[in-house]
Write a structure and sequence with these properties.
The protein is mainly alpha-helical and 122 residues long. It has a domain at 17-93. 48% of the residues lie in helices and 8% in strands. The chain has helices at 13-30, 40-50, 58-75, 78-89, and strands at 5-7, 91-92, 95-96, 103-105. The protein has a two-stranded antiparallel ribbon with strand order 1-4. Helix 2 (40-50) packs antiparallel against helix 3.
């Protein structure tokens, strides 16, 4: 029997990083400990996104949203940001996990099967 592989939830890639940042902004937005004035930053970026007074390139929209989100996170109290980041890092596919948890895949869990496309005309 071989050793089981472990899949860690810490490496998510580029898109997972974007999703985590969006979750962080959303969680900070809903947190009552954050100043309502700071919450105007993400709101301002969304208003800019839909405003008709815009330079017609998608790069500037992404840049403005990124800048306002970054500024919002940086201006929020660090202990609150750290608290929310820790909660976000504890999730894998919507499920809570404990520190050091991993998913184990044993050889017995793998099902060997053949694929046949029933819709093909061959």
């Amino acid at each position: 029997m071989t050793n089981p592989q472990k899949i860690s939830g810490n490496s998510g890639g580029f898109f997972q990083g974007i999703a985590d940042q969006a979750k962080l902004v959303w969680r900070l937005w809903l947190d009552n400990r954050i100043s309502p004035l700071l919450k105007l930053l993400p709101l301002g970026s969304l208003i800019y996104l839909i405003s008709p007074f815009d330079i017609p390139t998608p790069i500037d929209d992404v840049g403005v949203i990124w800048f306002f989100a970054y500024l919002f996170i940086e201006l929020c109290p660090p202990e609150i940001v750290d608290e929310h980041r820790a909660d976000i890092e504890k999730t894998i596919a919507g499920n809570w996990k404990k520190e050091g948890d991993s998913i184990e895949i044993n050889e017995e869990d793998i099902i060997d099967a053949d694929f046949e496309d029933l819709n093909s005309e061959d």
